[in-house]
C-alpha cells in the first residue's frame, strides 16, 4: 500500500522509487503483483507517467486509511511501556454527562496528564451518529441498534418513571399503570433521529409516540415545559433530578409493565483500540459502576 500510494502521488515510477528508496524494477514488480491480486489495472500507462484508473482512485482512498491506521498502530505499540498518551474523544448522553462527566475529566487530568480528552454531550441518538461518523471514539448511549459495525458493552439498566407536576400526574407516590399514562398529556423527548433510547421495549415506545402531545429534542426545553405544566414525560429521576429535589416536579414509578432502558458503551468494531482509548473506556465503566454503588445513579449494573 505504501508503494502504491507513492506511485499515485508521484505520478511516475522513477519518482516513486526515489521517494521510497527502492529500485524502479522492484516498484514495477510490486505494482504488477498488486494489479494481479485485484484483477484490474490500477494505472493507465502514459508516455510521461501513470494516470490512475477508477479502481486506482478507489484503492488510494483505502490505502490512505490503511497507512494512517498502521502509523497509529506503530506509534501505539512503541509507546506500550511508556505513560498512556494520545487523543481520545468521548460522546455521552445527557444523563451520563450529568452523572460522571466531571469525574471523568478530573481523573484524566490527575491520573493521565498525557491523555487529551475531548468530551461532547448530546442526546443519545445523536451521540451514536457522532460515533458512526468518526467524530468520537467512544460513546455512552442508550439502546443502540444491533449493528455489526458496532462493538457494544452493556453498562447499566435504569428504571423509567413518570415525571411531571403534581397537578398533572397526581400527588400520590403510588405506581402508575402504563395504560393510564397514555391518557395523560405526554411530552416525548426525541433522542436525536428517534426516541429509541427512551426504553428497551419498542412496541410500548410506538404507543407513546402515537399519543405524545409534544415531541422535543432539547433537554432544557422539555424540562421547562414540564415545570410549566404543559405535560408529563417518561424519564429517569436523574433526568430531572434538580427539579424533583426542589419539589417543582414529582415522579411516580411505572408498572404493568415496568419500563427500563440499558446504557451501553460503544465503539466502532473496525477501529483498532489504542492504549489511551482502552484506558478511557475502562475508566468510564468504572465511574458508572461507582456512581451506581454510591447511590448517585439509581440503576442496576448490567451483567
Structure in words:
Keywords: Activator, DNA-binding, Transcription, Transcription regulation. With 303 residues, the protein is of the alpha/beta class. The protein folds into three domains: 77 residues, Winged helix-like DNA-binding domain superfamily/Winged helix DNA-binding domain (Arc Repressor Mutant, subunit A), CATH 1.10.10.10; 112 residues, D-Maltodextrin-Binding Protein, domain 2; 98 residues, D-Maltodextrin-Binding Protein, domain 2 (3-Layer(aba) Sandwich), CATH 3.40.190.10. The chain is 45% helix and 23% strand. It contains twelve helices and 14 strands. Strands 4-3-5-13-6-14 form a six-stranded mixed sheet, sandwiched between helices. It has a four-stranded mixed sheet with strand order 8-12-7-11. Helix 1 packs across helix 2, helix 2 packs across helix 3 and helix 5 packs across helix 12. The longest helix has 25 residues. The mean pLDDT is 88.
**Widest sheet: strand ordering:** 4-3-5-13-6-14
Give me the CATH superfamily of the largest domain: Periplasmic binding protein-like II
Q: How do the SSEs run, as a string of H and E? A: HHHEEHEHEHEEEHEHEHEHEHEEHE
Number of helices: 12
Main beta-sheet annotation: 6 strands, mixed
Level-2 CATH architecture of the largest domain:
3-Layer(aba) Sandwich
According to CATH, what is the topology of the largest domain?
A: D-Maltodextrin-Binding Protein, domain 2
| CATH C-level class of the largest domain | Alpha Beta
The tally of strands reads 14
How many independent structural domains? 3
Distance between the ends = 43 Å
Portion in strands: 15-25%
Keywords: Activator, DNA-binding, Transcription, Transcription regulation
Family: Belongs to the LysR transcriptional regulatory family.
Pfam family, one: LysR_substrate
Protein name: LysR substrate-binding domain-containing protein
Amino acid at each position: 500500500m505504501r508503494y502504491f500510494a507513492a506511485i499515485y502521488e508521484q505520478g511516475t515510477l522513477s519518482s516513486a522509487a526515489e521517494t521510497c528508496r527502492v529500485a524502479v524494477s522492484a516498484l514495477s514488480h510490486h505494482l504488477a503483483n498488486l494489479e494481479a491480486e485485484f484483477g484490474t489495472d490500477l494505472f493507465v500507462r502514459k508516455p510521461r507517467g501513470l494516470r490512475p484508473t477508477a479502481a486506482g482512485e478507489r484503492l488510494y482512498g483505502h490505502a490512505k486509511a490503511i497507512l494512517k491506521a498502521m502509523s497509529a498502530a506503530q506509534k501505539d505499540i512503541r509507546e506500550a511501556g511508556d505513560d498512556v498518551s494520545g487523543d481520545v474523544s468521548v460522546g455521552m448522553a445527557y444523563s451520563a454527562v450529568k452523572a460522571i462527566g466531571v469525574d471523568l475529566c478530573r481523573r484524566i487530568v490527575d491520573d493521565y496528564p498525557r491523555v487529551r480528552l475531548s468530551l461532547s454531550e448530546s442526546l443519545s441518538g445523536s451521540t451514536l451518529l457522532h460515533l458512526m461518523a468518526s467524530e468520537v471514539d467512544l460513546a455512552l448511549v442508550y439502546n443502540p441498534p444491533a449493528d455489526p459495525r458496532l462493538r457494544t458493552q452493556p453498562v447499566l439498566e435504569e428504571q423509567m418513571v413518570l415525571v411531571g407536576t403534581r397537578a398533572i400526574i397526581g400527588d400520590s407516590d403510588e405506581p402508575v399503570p402504563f395504560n393510564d399514562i397514555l391518557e395523560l398529556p405526554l411530552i416525548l423527548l426525541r433522542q436525536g433521529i428517534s426516541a429509541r433510547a427512551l426504553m428497551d421495549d419498542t412496541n410500548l415506545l410506538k404507543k407513546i409516540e402515537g399519543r405524545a402531545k409534544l415531541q422535543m429534542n432539547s433537554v432544557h426545553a422539555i424540562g421547562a415545559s414540564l415545570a410549566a405544566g404543559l405535560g408529563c414525560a417518561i424519564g429517569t429521576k436523574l433526568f430531572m433530578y434538580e427539579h424533583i429535589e426542589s419539589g417543582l416536579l414529582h415522579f411516580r414509578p411505572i408498572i404493568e409493565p415496568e419500563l427500563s432502558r440499558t446504557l451501553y458503551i460503544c465503539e466502532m468494531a473496525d477501529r483498532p483500540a489504542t492504549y489511551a482509548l482502552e484506558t478511557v473506556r475502562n475508566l468510564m465503566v468504572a465511574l458508572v459502576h461507582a456512581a451506581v454503588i454510591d447511590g448517585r445513579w439509581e440503576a442496576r449494573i448490567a451483567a
